[in-house]
Amino acid sequence: MQTATPLISINLGSGGLSMVQLIVLLTVFTLAPSFIMFFTSFLRILVVFAFMRSALGLQQFPPAQVFTALALILTFLIMGPVFSQVYQQAWVPYSQGQMDFQQFLSAAEKPVGDWMLKQVKPEELNTMASISGTDPKNPNFTTLASAFMVSELKTAFTMGLLLYLPFIALDVIIASVLMSLGMFMIPPAMISLPLKILLFVAANGWDTVIMGLVRSFR
Fold first, then answer.
1. Which of 32, 45, 54, 196 is deepest in the core (most CB within 10 A)?
2. Which segments cross the bilayer (predicted)?
């Protein structure tokens, strides 16, 4: 006795997608977290948020998932025009059979590469170009991506340092005051933490940090 094998039919839209296009789409979704980390504004935003949380002295609150979600939302807001260009210039023609997979990759790389080139600092680009042996005036996508990541980390660390300085000054002032009053048994963090939060809220810190991050992208 033979058992019939069930068949699954997938129809996406009026034209549908071929098996190759469906595999490409699933691959893009699978690699999307890596793409977002490596080729978008997500890395800089997340690192700055990590510095801000450490500067405030907040160890467990807010949870890291909150900062990750906020960084992801800001990334989609900042990268919206670039994603729209990738969709219109690469995915739509490819899904309609107007270009092959290699042409699809080239068309998708161009708007992303143009955006990354605006953010990369010349010194990082020259360094990566010398390592890869390419022309820094006409770098390939791999060289540009590596220079972009290093440049993003450098920018994020610079912004994080600027966030740290006022809170470090507050820690030093609180510790000096407690020592001058002879209160050696009171941990300075017990006093400085609520004052840091009060200073951050009073200075409209969330809006300042977020707007500073958004405006730091060209």
1. 45
2. 7-29, 35-52, 64-83, 161-185, 197-217
Over residues 58-91, the pLDDT tens digits come to: 777 777 888 888 888 898 899 888 988 888 888 7
Calculate the alpha carbon distances from 137 to 38, 125, 126, 151, 218 in Å: 21, 9, 9, 17, 19
CA 126 to chain centre: 23
User: Would the pTM of this model clear 0.85, i.e. be above it?
Assistant: no
List the chain domain ranges.
Answer: 32-215
What's the sign of the alpha-carbon dihedral 93, 90, 95, 12?
negative
Nearest to 57 by CA among 159, 184, 195: 195
